[in-house]
Amino acid sequence: MVGLADLNGDEITELLDRAVEFRRLADERALPSPLAGATVGNLFFENSTRTRNSFRLAAKRLGAETVEFTEVGSSVAKGETVADTVRTIEALGVDLMVIRHGSPGVPHRLREFVTSGLLNAGDGTHEHPTQALIDLLSLRDAFSQEGTGESLAGKTVTVVGDILHSRVARSNIHGLRALGARVLVCGPSTLLPRQLPGAEFFTDLDAALAQSDAVNLLRVQFERQRGAFFPSPAEYYRLFGMTQTRLTRSGRDPWVLAPGPINRGIELSSEVADGPRSLILKQVANGVFIRMACLATLMEARR
Amino acid sequence: MVGLADLNGDEITELLDRAVEFRRLADERALPSPLAGATVGNLFFENSTRTRNSFRLAAKRLGAETVEFTEVGSSVAKGETVADTVRTIEALGVDLMVIRHGSPGVPHRLREFVTSGLLNAGDGTHEHPTQALIDLLSLRDAFSQEGTGESLAGKTVTVVGDILHSRVARSNIHGLRALGARVLVCGPSTLLPRQLPGAEFFTDLDAALAQSDAVNLLRVQFERQRGAFFPSPAEYYRLFGMTQTRLTRSGRDPWVLAPGPINRGIELSSEVADGPRSLILKQVANGVFIRMACLATLMEARR
Amino acid sequence: MVGLADLNGDEITELLDRAVEFRRLADERALPSPLAGATVGNLFFENSTRTRNSFRLAAKRLGAETVEFTEVGSSVAKGETVADTVRTIEALGVDLMVIRHGSPGVPHRLREFVTSGLLNAGDGTHEHPTQALIDLLSLRDAFSQEGTGESLAGKTVTVVGDILHSRVARSNIHGLRALGARVLVCGPSTLLPRQLPGAEFFTDLDAALAQSDAVNLLRVQFERQRGAFFPSPAEYYRLFGMTQTRLTRSGRDPWVLAPGPINRGIELSSEVADGPRSLILKQVANGVFIRMACLATLMEARR
């Protein structure tokens, strides 16, 4: 699975249901081994300890062996193309490959070169499909627990922050729309794209919050940002940081998602991060099960 | 287990006995899998290939899956607190966590944030409980082999070197005292603390050796030392280095421990390191079994 | 196994046959676990993601646990000798050790210090025995598929490139000769040794090709080369790069091996690398099975 844009609502729901089933089996310490005898390549051309560990653990718990590959920086500099690196790892006997790469479209393009099942773990500013599935499942859990039913249809979710550069935003918007939710995006006007089909634009967070059942707070990526898109972290926090005051003022008590790692005092206050509406740690826990569902589904498609 | 100071003599003896039992079963290639289905997080905020491998191997051999995390330098610099990192890893589905951190007290403090079982793999200059257990077991094996019984009661052990900054020294002294041994500490006066309950101070190694059944040679950590605590490595070796001449001169033939990695020609001569009284490689072998005992005990406490 | 020079033709053939057997069982998803309960140390004092992964995967698929160790640069700088590092890792309970080191003869010398089975994964410019076995098996497969029988006896193989510094060349020449092949070496005269028993020297690639059933294209190691052994990559490509024109001109359609990672446009053109005579990805796939054969054979020798 290279992008969430390839999947319709039914296919997304099937993956979420499957993740819930793996979660139930894990709780009962009765996980099956649908990947026994299979090898999963974990190829990170851009590093991420937490996402890598989540995929690795999902693969191992379902019985697979893993091959880890990290290439920070360009492999072209060492004289090997990305396609050659990936084909070489496939030749080791890999059945499924998880790929993260800094350039948009790389996993898509690699489909011409390999026959293994491909799972996109984030490609530049393009897509991050498993993160979106995690967010959808965490929202479904939360709404269901609230007694309003697990359906996302008719709910309003606001994605906050650097919409322009975020693959999480892009995949989320597609997934939320496919499940019938209304999507608002809100951030500094310098970090909003010119257009984004399916999303309504806000630059005033309080106005967006007044209509939201949930908010998804994108990470401010100081390590990536080159330009000066906003004056300072303090300025960002004042305008777009989620505080308890702001949540209460909205009169709607929305659920709070954040793909992390979070910056306390920038995207949100500690009170919100550790508060009763925060789904942050539940997102991490769901991550392993979403990845199990994707790996198992991809493996079946190959057999 | 966060520190050896939490355990009394009986509890320490129980862990040593359990390690011996795992060692016997490993020799018979009949190790059980008390950690089957469990996940152990191996969190090293300060790197150590050998300690990390020892814990990982202990966990895997008892049937666990592991999650590896290395963060050299401050994670606060990347905007995430240590508590958030640890809670995120726990949320992946981790049951037990092994934690090494450069600051004293971190594992202790993390108990407020996580519900997983915590095992301290070294916290700054504070404690390194599994290393102390390894040293105790290696001494018990040696005394037992000598025919004087495995008890440490009444034996005299000298810890040599940088007592001031050593977590190994601190954990060792507690463990040795709890099992009834007399403890001497010996090193340059600049590297001795002002006071250390339970230990007798020496600056003359020969005087300490004349009363010792065993010596534990702390590693000179050139990579950490900032000040000038002793004039030169040669000077250190002349005053505190263990040589065969010095061992013979003591008239007691003491057992030699060293937590390693050793510096030949600084803490000890090659003749001593490779000699019949050296327990260095036995300490490494016991390390895996001590860690098995700690992990299995911690897992039972959680169930 | 420290070098291919230790093995005669029958012993080499036995390893190749065993690899083929593991390959057949893997295809049937019926691999046995001859290394169950064993621990394999993967010690790379010089880094190589692909070779390390190949050994690790071979060990894991046969049921072993692995201990990974990477020490780039000199461990002596940290005060520990290579022998101490290796003995410490062995003491963790390791049964077999895979060792790559930048200095020729290190695995050979380590035999004095450890009792584990040792497998050389490349020692400086000396030997790289498993790569040679991979090349032999890939050639045997290719000749067999061609219908000329799998025997290498009477075949002519040309090794092209930096013969002077290549451990792959050295191991290949021994293996090819042991199985009855004729060996030509071809490269810039600055990169040919003064003498090389068993090989015939060429500096004109077309002359060598006119007599060859296969060519083995050594990697140009820009990262290692200190002197100026040839004017420029373009010059190298013009004289020694394998192109389709050159292959066709030879009138022999030789098989093409390359131990990789390949530099497209330097050792060979993309057309050749991806062409029907290229064995490059088959070499990678055979790598895992050759390593399985070596590990299993070494383990039996120990029991």
Provide key terms for this protein.
homotrimer; 303 residues; alpha/beta; Rossmann fold; 2 domains; 5-stranded parallel sheet; 11 helices; 9 strands; 41% helix; globular; pyrimidine biosynthesis (chains A, B, C); Asp/Orn_carbamoyltranf_P-bd (chains A, B, C); Asp/Orn_carbamoylTrfase (chains A, B, C); aspartate carbamoyltransferase activity (chains A, B, C)
Q: What proportion strand of chain A? A: 15-25%
CATH class of the largest domain in chain A: Alpha Beta
> Order of strands in the sheet with the most strands of chain A?
7-6-5-8-9
Poorly predicted segments of chain A: none
Sequence of secondary-structure elements of chain A: HEHEHEHEHEHEEHEHHEHH
| Number of spatially distinct domains of chain A | 2
Number of strands of chain A: 9
Overall CATH architecture of the largest domain in chain A: 3-Layer(aba) Sandwich
Describe the sheet with the most strands of chain A.
5 strands, parallel
* Name of the CATH superfamily of the largest domain in chain A: Aspartate/ornithine carbamoyltransferase
**Largest interface chains and counts:** B-C, 25 and 20 residues
Report how far apart the termini of chain A are: 16 Å
Oligomeric state: homotrimer
CATH topology of the largest domain in chain A: Rossmann fold
Subunit structure (chains A, B, C): Heterododecamer (2C3:3R2) of six catalytic PyrB chains organized as two trimers (C3), and six regulatory PyrI chains organized as three dimers (R2).
Protein name (chains A, B, C): Aspartate carbamoyltransferase
Function (chains A, B, C): Catalyzes the condensation of carbamoyl phosphate and aspartate to form carbamoyl aspartate and inorganic phosphate, the committed step in the de novo pyrimidine nucleotide biosynthesis pathway.
Pathway (chains A, B, C): Pyrimidine metabolism; UMP biosynthesis via de novo pathway; (S)-dihydroorotate from bicarbonate: step 2/3
